[in-house]
Amino acid sequence: MEHIANASEGIELLVRKCRFEFQRTENLDYYSKKDLHEAERKYVKYCLAGLTHSKSRQTPRDD
């Protein structure tokens, strides 16, 4: 049961990190309030799918 709690916490931390990354001035100035929320949701899904190369992630190695 503890493993599930840790996994859930990890996902919550990833979502928080993705939201923080999205909250850039360029995004805040560009989107309306409603569109900002929708774009943020899409960005979080994009991040969780592993399709982004965030600075905090390591680049894959060819071993």
Characterization of the model:
By secondary structure, the chain is mainly α. The chain has one domain (2-48). It is 68% helix and 0% strand. The chain has three helices and no strands. The protein is elongated. The chain starts with a helix and ends in a 15-residue tail after the last helix. Mean pLDDT is 82; it is low at 57-61.
How many strands, what sense, and barrel or not for the largest sheet?
none
Structural class, by secondary structure, is mainly alpha
- Number of discrete helical segments: 3
Measured by DSSP, the beta-strand proportion falls in: under 5%
Q: What's the average pLDDT?
A: 82
Along the chain, the helix and strand elements come as HHH
* Unreliable spans: 57-61
In angstroms, what is the radius of gyration? 14 Å
Domain unit count: 1
Number of strands: 0
Distance between the termini: 34 Å
- Globally, the shape reads elongated
Helix percentage? 55-70%
Key traits:
63 residues, mainly alpha, 3 helices, elongated, disordered C terminus
Offer a quick outline of the entry.
Helices cover 68% and strands 0% of the residues.
